[in-house]
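Section 5: illustrative case.
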């Protein structure tokens, strides 16, 4: 039997069931009120990272969810999978994780602090970055990317993950100052200027 679903149309003839994408259901169960806060408001050194999620046609995606996961400013994780051992963060209220659904204009925001660099298994160092997951309608699986910081040129240039990205595409992984003391990082799911995504 074909893997296409069939529906009985007028006159008893079989027709093709209209295609469907996943969602939009993300606003129902995934977000929570304090989701965008990696750190509490008023935390010293905290910065808002804001941006817009765009689809392949360059239109904002109003029903996406953006998640971030990161080390603390000392480059440590309070998690047993950290090979150096779990370490309590030095910043009160730091949780290392954020989740923000996009608004009607496709915008998201995350309040965080810059993470520290991370050691690589081969002895190198990863530049400060946030790991990012995007969930949205039409995506049957999440997409994963990173946000690097614009004031870390030397560290970004030496980062082994960034170094594996074609030079003309590396800019899609670096946030930009937004003019208000925060950072802007737009996510383009397809098309011109598509953000680099990684297989994990």
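Designed sequence:
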């Amino acid at each position: 039997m074909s893997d296409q679903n069939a529906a009985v149309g007028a006159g008893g003839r079989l027709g093709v069931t209209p295609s469907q994408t996943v969602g939009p259901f993300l606003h129902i169960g995934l977000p929570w009120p304090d989701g965008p806060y990696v750190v509490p408001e008023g935390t010293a050194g905290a910065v808002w990272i804001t941006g817009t999620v765009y689809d392949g046609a360059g239109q904002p995606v109003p029903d996406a969810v953006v998640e971030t996961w990161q080390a603390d400013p000392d480059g440590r994780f309070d998690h047993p999978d950290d090979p150096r051992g779990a370490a309590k963060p030095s910043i009160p209220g730091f949780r290392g994780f954020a989740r923000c659904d996009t608004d009607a204009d496709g915008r998201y925001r995350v309040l965080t602090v810059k993470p520290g660099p991370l050691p690589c298994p081969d002895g190198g160092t990863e530049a400060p970055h946030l790991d990012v997951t995007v969930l949205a309608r039409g995506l049957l699986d999440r997409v994963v990317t990173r946000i690097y910081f614009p004031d870390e040129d030397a560290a970004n240039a030496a980062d082994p993950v960034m170094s594996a990205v074609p030079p003309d595409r590396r800019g899609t992984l670096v946030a930009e100052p937004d003019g208000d003391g925060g950072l802007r990082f737009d996510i383009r799911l397809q098309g011109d200027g598509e953000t680099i995504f990684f297989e994990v």
